Amino acid sequence: MDIKLYNTLTRTKEVFRPIRPGHAGLYTCGPTVYDYAHIGNLRTYVFEDALRRVLEYNGIAVRHVMNITDVGHLESDADSGEDKMEKGARRTGKTAWQIAAEYTAAFRDDLGSLNILEPAVWCKATEHIREQVETIRLIEQNGYTYRTSDGIYFDTKKLPGYGALAGLANIEGIQAGSRVEMGEKRSATDFALWKFSPQGSQRQMEWDSPWGKGFPGWHIECSAMSAKYLGTLFDIHCGGEDHIAVHHTNEIAQTEAAYGTRLANYWLHGFFLQLGEEKMAKSSGEFLRLRLLADKGYDPLAYRYFCLGGHYRTQLRFSWESLTAAQRALENLRAEVGRLVLAAGGGGEPDGPAAAAGRSKFLDSVNDDLNMPQALAVLWDLLKDNGTSAVTRLALVREFDTVLGLKLLDLPSGDEVPPAIAALLEQRKQARAAKQWTESDRLRDEIAAQGFVVEDTPRGQTVRRKKFGE
Ligand code: AMP
Ligand code: ZN
Q: pTM for this structure?
């Protein structure tokens, strides 16, 4: 079955045709590790994870590469201002190297909490200086660079078709918008490949190069590292929508100038998470971390559910109400799946034609440019479809969850009740047998205070974790 993906480069939904049948090279621009990721950043990684899981569900082996930007990303996209890493180091009183390690670890924790699959390759800009210098040398040899007093720049006028990804109107907008920041640049869209360390001050992160001591520009790491790990032309390149006009446009320019290829065949961009009327950004507005959501009692996977509830090519507005709704929906989904597990009992074989029909509906959604909101609707319909056997439905839920990543089958079972709670339950059982109702109620409250709800059924006590807000 065809997978259709919206390609920013052609502005159409296209059938995905991998370079090597059955395989896909996927490069996703990773974080700049000068601070924690906010939930807006994480929306982009959830979308990319959904893409990878959909490809894999279709039987495609995905080689996923993600970079870590730990040097060279300046405050302004026009190559001016301070390096975000050096600024972050000053803010925290630590070294740039220390904060890079700490924020990288925090980022990977966040990905784990969101059940985002681990990339096959993590690559750090600072560990690939040689590769970046080599790529710049090729660009220079091919005649696309010039030198100013602060660095080596890419001459965008020399490259016919520069800016095709962004569209001409956007490129003209950038040119008009950044004239003030031109410095010695020949055109506003020209960008730094290598920046010299400032005279008279020592940077924490700097290296020797054929052009002088300094550090790489932000965009070159992605051209150099994707070439190393995926080849100079690979299948899919992703990032947030803000990357279209500058970062990805410049990655393409570098790779074309160095290797004569267009870098990737498909370019997918996730739209932003909004907070009120504002986009969520590190520099402005409220900075919400996944950890804060968890501290407030939300399951991080409720945030994943919330993200999947909006198509990646529409902006999504965050509110606590909608996150609460997502949390409730996820809990209900898990409760439904729990009932299904009981109903399916000891197992049996799924019904072949019914399973194929369910699978095909799900594939129709996810293969249509990752229509995850529709995929969730297909899942809900399936759970309520009493015409299909519980065994078949359960088998499909298991399959669908490999794409949704909501851990629907990681149900709290009796074994997960901590020993202390099990002991209280036993005491309560005995109190009830002895008709000590006051003691029984006291024990119920004690159990509740520890996050569990006891219910009395004709077959005895049952226990479950408290629901959100209960
Ligand atoms: P950064 O760490 O700033 O380089 O950004 C990491 C990723 O998050 C990039 O792919 C950005 O495009 C993306 N991003 C930044 N802000 C948002 C937002 N508000 N919503 C969704 N994605 C975002
Ligand atoms: Zn990149």
A: 0.88
